[in-house]
Design goal:
It is built from 24 helices and 12 strands. By secondary structure, the chain is α/β, with parallel strands linked by helices. Helix 10 packs parallel to helix 14 and helix 19 packs across helix 22. The longest helix has 29 residues. The radius of gyration is 26 Å and the shape is globular. It starts with a helix and ends with a helix. Keywords: Carbohydrate metabolism, Glycosyltransferase, Transferase. It is an enzyme of class 2 (transferase). This is 4-alpha-glucanotransferase. One of its GO terms (molecular function) is 4-alpha-glucanotransferase activity.
Length: 646
């Protein structure tokens, strides 16, 4: 899209009252260039930089990334990644071959070329991910060995010495999480079970950071011994983290120069590494999951640990306890690295749905679970009574315990108690100078009363995913007309089908006319001509998709988000929730995305933003059309130009 269109889009967004226009894109999906790609995307690559320049020219004000923690070789889900360590699969390798770059020539160009050439063409996404893990490990090993060799030279270059100084400062600043995370790798390798500590959970090494009473001195001694014996492995782990953290800093600077805010993802789950390190913070008898809901009627047993409420504050309320100190450390790090945060499943911070651990049938267990703080007298969960914030008379027993209205009333003091962890997010964001609107709450089909009260206290909105709207229910939460100014609205997200695939399903199921009638009411305020507009939408699926996008901009929501597949016209699904499939988390923007995007634009099969914005402005009626006549003419011209490829 020509740079001249950027100001046009910005002008249209302002006219529509939209203050945030954000692209959602996870790390593995970024495009690479043919000479740098080892099978997985990275936001720090040159291919990513070119795509983000395109996003800037589309007028985006922000980029929503997924969780960026370290994943394992067997589980690519970013929502199971580490909380402090960054994913070293994101280290862009090409910059490490540049002798004039900030890291010098740590990696040979020949090694990079060989790794790129070995990317498997067949075998599916699982094979490419495995190859990326192996290739990245080999490349980073060579980079580390080069660094050690060059650092030891008597005539080490000045640039290398500067790199070493930055590395030393990084290690010192982040020692509190670097050393435990590195020791997890050391211990896993020595026991032959990398990434899985369950087989040695009962050993002293399994509880180094949560020793039993009387074991504290032995555990501390063993930590010191391991740090001494494995000093090089620990330092190498820190070096890899140093590289990925520095490259993230480069991205932040580049994004800021382009006027793009970076949003991080505050995942609700814990990786095996973090569970091992922080097992002393968790309830042993319960796990966290998702209750039955409209999106997942059966519920989901996530197998995530639950933070112990009795460790939120210190004894007798004398200050923050271990849990709140952990939250402060996690949020402080994240907000030093991002301009805002998406809170993944915020009910997990406010009123988590818990189920008994160790059950033979986890799905049945999660279906019979309960809310941690809203279960004062359940006969099947008597252990939860000690954590209850509500009294029995504050419950509506006519509803299922997972229903939004299970709790029917709360006092301000009770809302404050529900908000203890959530308040940490809001407070830390404010301390780092973040705006209220830069805290995003991923509330989808369920909004328990407890969570609604906590969010309302801070003036925070929810997500409205319009592809899920019930067109027969005027009060449905996903309909655009029900969005509030503080909400975030989108046609889909990383857990939904691409809108382009969905519209094909609507066509096959004869559902286009219902969608067209709804969109005609939203976008064509005058009765005269509305029926003709609806017929046009019903017979032109591509135009109907553009109208579905325009519907977002006619709502009262000031923040609009689009997932990359919906933007580019890609019909594939990024993640199917609740499923184990090697295709999950693997969808990528191809190398030749610019050509494919233009071809789809020409066929009306990708987001034509000027066309969409013009549709939304015209939905304001005759007065709006007169007020914005010049802007509409320029948007129409830009839309035609994009479709023709001029």
């Amino acid at each position: 899209m020509p740079d001249s269109h950027r100001s046009l889009v910005t002008e249209a967004l302002e006219a529509l009252g939209v203050t945030r226009w954000v692209l959602s894109l996870h790390d593995p999906s970024f495009p690479g260039l043919p000479g740098e790609d080892v099978g997985r995307g990275s936001p720090y690559s040159e291919g990513a930089a070119r795509f983000l320049a395109f996003a800037r020219d589309l007028g985006f004000t922000g980029l929503q990334l997924g969780p960026q923690g370290q994943t394992t070789a067997h589980n690519p889900s970013p929502y199971d990644g580490t909380l402090f360590s960054r994913n070293t699969l994101n280290v862009a390798l090409a910059p490490l071959t540049d002798p004039r770059g900030p890291w010098g020539a740590l990696l040979s160009a020949d090694t990079l070329a060989r790794l790129v050439a070995e990317v498997p063409e067949g075998g599916g996404p699982e094979a490419r991910y495995q190859h990326a893990c192996r290739s990245q490990s080999l490349a980073l090993q060579e980079s580390w060995e080069t660094f050690l060799r060059e650092r030891s030279r008597a005539d080490a270059p000045v640039a290398l010495l500067a790199l070493d100084q930055r590395f030393a400062a990084f290690r010192e600043e982040h020692r509190a999480w670097l050393e435990p995370d590195a020791l997890f790798d050391v211990l896993g390798a020595s026991k032959g079970t990398p990434d899985d500590w369950r087989s040695w959970a009962d050993s002293l090494e399994g509880r180094l950071y949560a020793p039993r009473p009387g074991e504290e001195a032995r555990a501390e001694a063993r930590i010191r011994e391991l740090l001494t014996l494995e000093a090089e492995a620990v330092e190498q782990y820190a070096f890899r983290q140093f590289l990925v953290h520095e490259q993230h800093g480069v991205l932040r600077e580049r994004a800021a120069g382009w006027g793009l805010k970076l949003y991080g993802d505050l995942q609700i789950g814990f990786s095996p590494r973090d569970t091992w390190r922080r097992q002393g913070l968790f309830l042993g008898a319960y796990l966290m999951g998702a209750p039955p809901s409209r999106t997942n009627p059966e519920g989901q047993p996530w197998n995530y640990p639950v933070l112990d409420p009795e460790q939120y504050v210190a004894p007798e309320g004398s200050g923050p306890g271990p849990v709140l100190r952990f939250m402060d450390a996690r949020l402080g790090k994240m907000l030093s690295e991002y301009d805002g945060l998406r809170i993944d499943h915020p009910h997990g911070l406010v009123c988590p749905w818990v189920y008994r651990a160790g059950q033979a049938d986890p799905l049945r267990a999660v279906q019979g679970g309960a809310r941690l703080f809203s279960s004062p007298d359940l006969p099947d969960h008597p252990e939860l009574a000690r954590y209850a914030i509500v009294a029995p008379e504050q419950l509506d027993r006519a509803q299922p315990r997972h229903a939004d209205g299970w709790v029917k009333s709360l006092t301000p003091e009770q809302v404050g108690r529900y908000a203890r962890l959530f308040d940490t997010v809001v407070r830390t964001a404010r301390e780092h100078g973040r705006a209220r609107e830069d805290v995003l709450c991923e509330v989808l089909s369920t909004l328990p009363f407890e969570l609604s009260q906590v969010m309302a206290r801070d003036g925070l909105g929810r997500f409205r995913v319009t592809q899920k709207a019930d067109l027969n229910n005027p009060a449905d939460v996903y309909r655009s007309e029900n969005a509030a100014p503080e909400d975030w609205i989108m046609v889909g997200n990383h857990d939904t089908k691409s809108l382009w695939r969905l519209v094909a399903e609507w066509q096959w199921k004869h559902g286009l006319r219902a969608q067209a009638d709804y969109l005609a009411r939203r976008l064509h305020p005058e009765a005269e001509g509305r029926e003709d507009f609806a017929r046009q939408l019903a017979t032109d699926p591509g135009l109907l998709v553009q109208a579905k996008f325009a519907d977002l901009f006619t709502s009262r929501a000031r923040s609009v988000m689009v997932f990359f597949a919906d933007l580019l016209g890609m019909p594939d699904t990024y993640n199917a929730p609740g499923s184990v499939d090697p295709r999950n988390w693997s969808l990528r923007i191809p190398h030749d995305w610019a050509r494919q995007y233009q071809e789809r634009l020409s066929a009306g099969a990708a987001l034509n933003l000027p066309q969409v914005l013009a549709m939304a402005l015209r939905a304001g009626g005759a007065e709006a059309r007169a007020l914005h006549a010049d802007l509409l003419a320029r948007l129409d011209g830009a839309a035609s130009q994009l479709q023709s490829g001029a």
